[in-house]
Amino acid sequence: MSGESQHITGEQLCALTGLTDRRHRQIAKEGYFPPPINGEYQFSAAIQGMFRYYRELSAKRSSTLEDEKQKKLAAERKISELNLARMRGELLDASGVEKEWGNIILTTRQKLLGMENKISTRLGFTDEQRKGLSQEVEETLKELSRPTLYNDNRQDDLESVAESDKALPASP
Fold first, then answer.
1. What's the angle, vertex CA 42, arms to CA 40 and CA 45, rounded to 5?
2. In degrees to the nearest 10, what's the CA dihedral of 61, 66, 70, 73?
């Protein structure tokens, strides 16, 4: 500190706080204490400002940490609820459902392709009628195989589940 005017040099303040003079100037610019004049800070204002800065920083970190802990607890609770719903058979795994539907679609496709032969033989179709039926089946399968764009509502569903606090029931 220099003399009677109760000032502290930038180097001395750096030694006390462990921060750089550049950071001190940023903190001063944020309004915690007056900026330095000729490289010197007002001693009591700078020290009080640093204490206030550290208190607010600590409160902010603590608040953020508490928010994160709450989010983690809520997520763990949701996971537990979903696992419980799955064990009860109230919730189905999406990949399992997709696999089952894939098998159903493959079986349906094979049956439709074989239908032309069965029907045309039973009903005595001509070659032209068989060809026409075969084309209809193939066109229908092509149309059905075109990708349909659906909105991916999984995130919306998760948010609505979180809001309603209920798991999605399994379909019969």
1. 145
2. 100
Question: At which residue do the structure tokens 């059905």 appear?
Answer: 144
Tell me which amino acid residue 42 is. Q
Q: Over 60: is that where the pLDDT of 26 sits?
A: yes
Answer yes or no: is pLDDT of 51 > 70.
yes
CB 40 within 8 A of CB 7: yes
Q: Where is 117: in which H helix or E strand?
A: helix 94-123
Query: What are the residue boundaries of the structural domains of the chain, listed by start?
Result: 7-61, 94-164
Which residues have C-beta within 8 Å of that of residue 112, sequence separation ≥ 6? 137, 140, 141
Place of tokens 């030694």: 15
pLDDT at 31 (0 to 100): 95
Percent of the chain residues past pLDDT 70, beyond the cut: 84
User: Using a CB cutoff of 8 Å and minimum separation of 24, what contacts does 137-143 make?
Assistant: 137/112, 137/113, 138/113, 140/112, 141/109, 141/112, 141/113
What are the φ/ψ torsions at residue 3 (nearest 5 degrees)? 45, -150
**Do 124 and 118 contact (CB within 8 A), yes or no?**
no
91 near 170, Cβ under 8 Å? yes
Taking a C-beta distance cutoff of 8 angstroms, is the pair 46, 9 a contact?
no
**Pick from 35, 34, 39: nearest CA to 11:** 39
Match 């809520």 to its residue by tokens: 74
How far, in Å, CA of 110 to CA of 34, rounded?
A: 81
